[in-house]
Amino acid sequence: MLPFWAAGAPVTSKDYTLEPGDVVSVKVFQEPDLDRELRVSQDGDLYLPLIGRIEARGRSVAEVERAVREAYDRDYLVNPQINILVVKYQVSTVNVLGAVNSPQAVEYPPEQQLTLIDAVSRAGGFSRLADRRHVRLSRTSSDGRVENLVINADELMSGAAKDPLVLRRDDVIYVPERVL
Question: Beta-carbon neighbour count of residue 160 at 10 Å?
Fold first, then answer.
């Protein structure tokens, strides 16, 4: 099993896992009356004409396309061609706190990767008192456990570390001040 900070492959549109708040465009070929732009509900569902509720949370765009195609094919259309595109992604953030020039929640699109160094840079960079060798990263795993890691950011910046440390939604980065 890879460590929780290991880099993953970039997310493509069809591989993207839908989340509540995402906005998708649903197009049904040669059926313009069924075309819709929909927001994934807080319950993780999409509601489409004729077929009703389709579960979207935790499913890739390709899986939801397949489910919509099967639902329309079952009762309403013959061999429907469905295209789903994510129009607007739910905002993903990581929090950067401590000895940085502008502590804040850093937003990034989920189809892009954000590294620890990118996040610190977007928060104005390390302050002159930052202890870059003891940066802390906290991440809550899917089972609710909080994982903590101490990172030497100098190694990341110099290229000595082999993993670029890709962040995930809701990670917290804390940069302590060094002791003088």
Answer: 9
pTM of the model: 0.65
Instruction: Give the architecture (CATH level 2) of 23-88.
Output: 2-Layer Sandwich (3.30)
Q: How far is CA 146 from CA 4, 106, 113, in A?
A: 11, 20, 21
User: What residue segments make up the domains of the chain, in order of their start?
Assistant: 23-88, 92-175
Beta bridge partner(s), residue 150: 136
Identify the CATH assignment for 92-175 out of 3.10.560.10, 3.30.360.20, 3.90.550.10, 3.40.190.10: 3.10.560.10
Q: Quick check: 99 and 180 in contact, CB under 8 A?
A: no
Q: 95-129, pLDDT tens digit by residue?
A: 999 999 999 999 887 777 889 999 999 999 999 99
- Residue 127 φ then ψ, to 5°: -75, 170
